[in-house]
Design a protein that fits this description.
It is built from 1 helix and 26 strands. The chain has one domain: Neuraminidase (6 Propeller), CATH 2.120.10. The protein is mainly β and 333 residues long. The longest helix is centred in the C-terminal third of the chain and has 4 residues. It has a 6-stranded antiparallel β-sheet, with no helix packed on it. It has a 4-stranded antiparallel β-sheet with strand order 4-5-6-7, with no helix packed on it.
Length: 333
């Protein structure tokens, strides 16, 4: 699908902002959303989620110029700063998922530097954390005594509370834990065949077709892959319609896919492309992601790394750029 050209619309202050998308899926593009305190300088903005109150959580690695080491920054729905925490994730802040359990919501986080998965309250209190999956046969030392690398990138939670973690920067397995963070099973592993993965960077539970399935952003293989909840390969999806898919979110049957190669994709229930948002086809993202903010082109993405919907269908996108960037796509119509 060819992306629609960016058009510009005036806001109440007379400023012109780009509009992206087409048809029923059009959005006003608001780059550098959120009033970031002067004490915090974003590093790579890796994770984003929204709670039931509309608070937006940004997980970033912290820039070298930042006065604060807090990696979690929280804004209200209007972009006003609420709080920050999470200095222990500096340099490794990566995957971020929110999950409601009873009347309370919790944050689940991946740390690629310390190689762990953790559960926290919304205010930054640690509930539990788990590290190297020693119990998994897949991670037993080889004949040379060396361990498999473990560096989890993202996670999702099944209806029964089990937690599915993609070892995207490690050994390309999916590790499954119970709700207490105790290891249960491992599947996947590096390769290109059915059931094998190469950088399972993002992961979701997809129930749009009925029974829940595990949907994996098999990034380096440039495809989606579906598994049963017990780790059996079921099918491939969206081959050719994705470049370097990073993660997922869902809203009223829509699938949201941040793609590292400078675009965000919206798909229908059959994973058919409905819109490519802020698509930059110049193929300059590898260099541009290290540039200063004023080099970024308005209305174009550089390296979308995670994205999520709010309750109104607006979209928040965070990017793998050295100076960090949060963009709100405000739903139109």
């Amino acid at each position: 699908m060819t992306a629609a050209p960016a058009v510009f619309a005036s806001d109440k202050a007379g400023e012109k902002r780009p509009v992206t998308g087409q048809g029923a899926h059009r959005y006003e593009v608001i780059h550098d959303w959120g009033e970031l305190p002067k004490t915090i300088s974003y590093g790579n903005t890796h994770g984003v989620c929204v709670d039931a109150q509309g608070h937006v959580y940004i997980h970033h690695t912290v820039h070298s110029t930042s006065q604060s080491d807090d990696t979690m920054v929280v804004f209200d729905r209007k972009g006003k700063f609420v709080r920050s925490w999470g200095s222990e994730f500096k340099g490794g802040a990566h995957g971020l998922t929110i999950h409601k359990e009873g009347k309370e919501e919790f944050l689940y986080l991946c740390d690629t530097k310390r190689a762990l998965v953790a559960k926290y309250t919304l205010k930054g209190e640690k509930v539990w954390e788990t590290g190297y999956p020693e119990q998994s046969p897949a991670y037993k030392p080889g004949a040379d005594g060396k361990k498999q690398k473990f560096s989890p990138t993202n996670l999702t939670i099944a209806p029964n509370g089990d937690i599915y973690v993609g070892d995207g920067y490690g050994s390309s397995y999916i590790n499954v834990y119970n709700s207490k963070g105790e290891w249960k099973l491992t599947f996947g592993g590096k390769g290109k065949e059915a059931g094998q993965l190469d950088c399972p960077h993002g992961i979701a539970i997809d129930s749009r077709g009925g029974a829940p399935r595990v949907l994996v952003a098999d990034r380096s293989n440039r495809r989606f892959q579906y598994f049963s909840l017990d780790g059996k390969h079921e099918s491939f999806g969206a081959q050719g319609d994705v470049k370097l898919p990073c993660h997922f979110d869902q809203y009223k049957g829509l699938l949201l896919v941040p793609d590292l190669e400078a675009r965000v994709t919206l798909m229908d229930q059959s994973n058919k492309v409905l819109a490519q948002l802020c698509d930059d086809e110049s193929n300059t993202w590898g260099k541009l992601r290290k540039e200063a903010r004023d080099k970024f082109v308005p209305g174009k993405f550089v390296c979308p790394h995670s994205a999520c919907f709010d309750k109104d269908g607006n979209i928040f996108v965070v990017e793998w750029v050295e100076v960090g960037r949060v963009t709100k796509l405000r739903r139109l119509g």
